[in-house]
Automatic annotation (TrEMBL):
Segments passing through the bilayer: 12-33
Main subcellular location of this protein, as a coarse class: membrane
UniProt-recorded name of the protein: Ig-like domain-containing protein
Presence of the UniProt keyword Methyltransferase in the record: no
Organism: Cyprinus carpio carpio
Keywords: Cell membrane, Disulfide bond, Glycoprotein, Immunoglobulin domain, Membrane, Receptor, Signal, Transmembrane, Transmembrane helix
Subcellular location: Cell membrane
Membrane topology category: Single-pass type I membrane protein
């Protein structure tokens, strides 16, 4: 029984054509080539500060097209950056005057935030979603101390 496999990539989709003596079968596997998902762990101390990392792999960023959404435990709005500007009007009050960004770094693709005056309730999962490139970083923040 002779067989062959032909693989072609068309716009991020891989098509596998399996041919056997009895016929051919086509399997399609979609790949999200531009989606990047990283997970890191950061440790902080009660009352201290940490930088939660978030950066884009895109080298030709146009800030007017970029949105960055920081969330805590998938629900609380920590910080939003829309078209290169900070949007804190919808920010959860727990993060008011405690979360800050580094605007001079935006063009380099660095959208990290610094979280000050850490509290035990800050422990958990933070996520940073960069659109339209659909890059996401997940940070597990562990708080130590009294």
């Amino acid at each position: 029984m002779a067989s062959s496999v032909d693989i072609k990539e068309v716009k991020g989709t891989r098509v596998f054509l399996f041919c056997f003596s009895s016929g051919c079968f086509i399997c399609v596997f979609a790949l999200l080539i531009h989606k990047v998902c990283l997970q890191v762990t950061v440790e902080g101390v009660n009352g201290g500060s940490v930088v939660l990392p978030c950066s884009s792999t895109q080298h030709d960023l146009k800030l007017q097209d970029v949105s960055v959404h920081w969330r805590h435990n998938n629900s609380e709005i920590v910080y939003d950056i829309i078209k290169g500007g900070d949007v804190v009007s919808v920010q959860n009050p727990r993060y008011k005057n405690r979360a800050e960004t580094f605007p001079d770094e935006y063009l380099r693709g660095n959208f990290s935030i610094k979280l000050n005056n850490l509290q035990h309730t800050d422990g958990g999962t933070f996520s940073c979603l960069i659109t339209p490139s659909n890059e996401q970083e997940t940070i597990q923040l562990n708080i130590k101390g009294l």
